[in-house]
Specification:
The structure holds three protein chains of three kinds.
Chain A lengths: L30 E5 L5 E4 L15 E3 L6 E4 L2
Antiparallel strand pairs in A: 1-2, 1-3
Chain B lengths: L2 E2 L13 H4 L21 E4 L8 E7 L3 H12 L4 E7 L7 E8 L5 H35 L1
Antiparallel strand pairs in B: 2-3, 3-5, 4-5
Chain C lengths: L4 H7 L1 E4 L4 E2 L19 H7 L1 E8 L2 E7 L3 H13 L3 E12 L5 H9 L3 E2 L2 H4 L22 E8 L1 E2 L10 H4 E2 L2 E3 L4 E2 L5 H4 L7 E2 L5 E4 L5 E11 L10 E14 L6 H8 L6 E5 L6 E5 L21 E16 L5 H25 L1
Antiparallel strand pairs in C: 1-2, 1-18, 3-4, 4-18, 5-14, 6-12, 7-11, 7-14, 8-9, 10-13, 15-18, 16-17
Helix pairs in contact in C: 3-9
Classes of the chains: A mainly beta, B alpha+beta, C alpha+beta.
Chain lengths: ~70, ~140, ~350
């Protein structure tokens, strides 16, 4: 049971296989999170308060990796 | 087992090369093939101390009680056979050993071949009877 | 010297006593009884062997095999469970899964979903070899079936605020087996056309539950396999046999004992008959097939020595319940063919060497 570790975003976004990943634009500091309360997607820039822009909830989830993961159905 | 993969979707199925596959039947969509067509059977005769071929042990690979017991029974039905028994030496090895001793009129290998042929005949009878009974049953039900 | 009919009947019964069973092993071998043959005889077998179908629903068959040894009946049963090939989900490629069901758990659940499709189409499919060195290990249209599952849960704004039922509050709050969609590759659209497309046998299997914002997006590869490798490939829910029970009344059981005797068996096994002339009550066995061989009669002293329980050694009551890829009768015929194939293959190999 071995899973390849998370590869942090690098210049050029080498690891990402689908558009919209973290590594798309190295200069962009905005990150997308999910609000734990209303489920809306929240884009937060560096220095912004950690807060949902819709409902003001202060708990945000990180999005799941967009990488494909293979499993055996056993 | 888990691991990340770089390709996003499947590669397209390659064009089927009927000529190189040496399988002309495959292209004929009207006549589907038997799944279990390949012969992957493996059998070896285990070493014997003497030249006496009226007794022998055989090792069947990838076989278990399914074939072992049925074959043992039908070989024991042969009056020329003095003894027939099978064992699975180790549960984690997919192997089945069969011991055959005859009274000497035929060789152990002959007895095994006859056993396999008899079991095959038995299967044909079972198929025939089942098909016939199914026809009878459906006809009766329709009435 | 030929044995008497009575003797032959006795040999057919495996005796069930109060605390033990006796006469268990078959004795129909040459050399067991002096002066009797018992050698394998195909014509004799054809004459004596019988099959009787009792129940024939598509996925649920019950039939009797009469006049065959336990080793052969057991071979058929074992092949049905472990050696008839079926299609099942083998690999799951998860693009996204934000549901509460973990990827590996979901993958395992998906693997167990029984699939069906055009039966003739399945015959085009081949084994996909597991060893990556072999050429047949590559996924192609004739060894791999691709399925997809893409479901996202959203809120339904059209319902009143008082609504509490998640199935009305949200769209796709539950993911079912019917959401698994066939993605035909290569020539598969011809093999599995129209109503023959590959799908789950039971569309209502609940796979996962979702809440708004959660999503499942995955691709699945299905391959052929056998039950020996993994239970998900087993084509039957159950394939089993039992021996026909036999109840012999050796001395008449009359009067009140008769009522008690009947009460010792499940309904329909025995009944009390009243003699029209004398008006005497007498117990008779009507349908031993319904008996469970609970041995209740043997616990009562009044029946001591009057009744003999047993099972018929060569009468197998087979029950085959299919999971849905093939009908039960097709499965049994396939099992017989697989046993035959084994014989042919080994015979071939022996004649070669």
């Amino acid at each position: 049971m071995q899973r390849e570790g998370y590869v942090p975003p690098t210049a050029g976004g080498g690891g990402a296989t689908r558009p919209g990943g973290y590594g798309d634009n190295p200069r962009q500091t905005a990150m997308k999170y999910l609000c734990a309360d209303c489920g809306k997607s929240v884009t937060i820039n560096k220095g912004d308060p950690i807060r949902c822009k819709e409902c003001g909830f202060r708990i945000l989830y990180k999005e799941r990796t967009k990488r494909m993961v293979q499993f055996e159905a056993r | 087992m888990t691991n990340t993969q770089d390709h996003e979707t499947l590669p397209d199925a390659p064009e089927y090369d009927a000529e190189n596959a040496g399988d002309a039947e495959f292209d004929d969509d009207d006549e589907p093939l038997d799944l279990t067509r390949e012969n992957n059977a493996k059998i070896t005769m285990l070493g014997s101390a003497t030249d006496d071929d009226s007794c022998a042990s055989f090792q069947f690979e990838n076989e278990d009680h399914t074939l072992g017991n049925a074959l043992r029974w039908i070989i024991m039905k042969n009056p020329q056979v003095e003894f027939c028994g099978y064992s699975i030496p180790h549960p984690s090895e997919a192997k089945m050993n069969m011991r055959i001793q005859t009274y000497g009129e035929i060789t152990a290998k002959d007895a095994l071949i006859k056993g396999l042929a008899d079991l095959r005949d038995l299967c044909d009878v079972v198929t025939d009877k089942f098909v016939a009974e199914k026809e009878r049953f459906t006809a009766e039900k329709r009435r | 010297m030929a044995p008497t009919q009575e003797e032959l009947e006795r040999r057919r019964i495996v005796r069930v006593e109060e605390e033990r069973v006796s006469h268990v092993t078959s004795t129909d071998f040459p050399g067991h009884y002096p002066g009797e043959d018992h050698a394998w005889d195909l014509d004799e077998f054809r004459k004596k062997f019988k099959i009787q179908i009792h129940k024939a629903n598509e996925l649920d068959y019950e039939f009797d095999l009469i006049g065959v040894d336990a080793s052969v009946a057991n071979a058929f049963r074992r092949i049905l469970i472990a050696e008839v090939p079926t299609l099942a989900i083998e690999t799951v490629f998860v693009h996204n899964n934000t549901s509460i069901v973990q990827d590996e758990v979901l993958a395992q659940r998906l693997g167990l979903v029984p699939l069906r499709g055009d039966k003739k189409g399945f015959q085009h499919l081949r084994w996909r070899k597991k060893n990556p060195e072999e050429p047949a290990a590559e996924a192609t249209d004739f060894n791999t079936v691709v399925m997809t599952l893409k479901v996202a849960c959203t809120r339904n704004h059209a319902v009143p605020a008082t609504e509490t039922d998640p199935s009305k509050l949200y769209f796709n709050s539950s993911v079912y087996a019917r959401d698994i969609k066939f993605a035909p590759q290569g020539r598969q659209p011809q093999w599995f056309a129209g109503a023959g497309e590959i799908r789950a046998v039971n569309p209502d299997i609940l796979l996962a539950k979702l809440r708004p914002g959660q999503e499942i997006d995955l691709e699945m590869h299905c391959v052929l396999g056998i039950g020996q490798d993994h239970a998900k490939f087993s084509p039957v829910a159950t394939a089993s046999y039992r021996l026909l029970p036999s109840i012999k009344i050796k001395q008449p059981i009359t009067g009140e004992d008769a009522e008690k005797f009947v009460g010792c068996f499940p309904a329909g096994v025995a009944e009390v008959q009243t003699d029209r002339k004398t008006g005497e009550k007498k117990a008779v066995v009507v349908n031993p097939r319904k008996d469970t061989v609970s041995r209740e009669v043997l616990r009562h002293d009044e029946f001591k020595g009057k009744v003999e329980l047993g099972r018929v050694r060569d009468h197998f009551i087979f029950s085959v319940e299919s999971t849905g890829m093939y009908n039960s009768d097709e499965l049994f015929l396939q099992a017989v063919q697989i046993l035959k194939k084994k014989c042919i293959d080994f015979q071939e190999k022996l004649l070669e060497s």
